[in-house]
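Comment on this:
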Amino acid sequence: QVQLVESGGGLVQAGGSLRLSCAASGRSFSSYTMGWFRQAPGKEREFVAAITWTGGSTYYADSVKGRFTISRDNAKNTVYLQMNSLKPEDTAVYYCAADYQAGITTAAHRYDSWGQGTQVTVNA
């Protein structure tokens, strides 16, 4: 099992930027696909972005493509989500998750470990 802790959330004005971090500990972080999800009040948890264990492949939800960038540093056991041009509709709790299987999936139920989440609030 891997333990995940997110940080970097906060309050930002529309058009601003934030960088979320997710620190992992436990099993071999470098062998996992890592994903970011978000959940707004009253809504389902939705996929945001994912990255394979090598960092060679990434995938984004259409709603964030071109604005968000996922990356990872396996030496630091950390995955990042750089969020630019933030919009009020990006307001949500953001979660990182680890998928012990190879490849990228957008399905939340396929992920094996989850962090506790970090709040991102974007004011208009």
About this structure: Residues 8 and 22 are 9 Å apart (CA to CA). The mean pLDDT is 94. DSSP finds no helices and eleven strands in the chain.
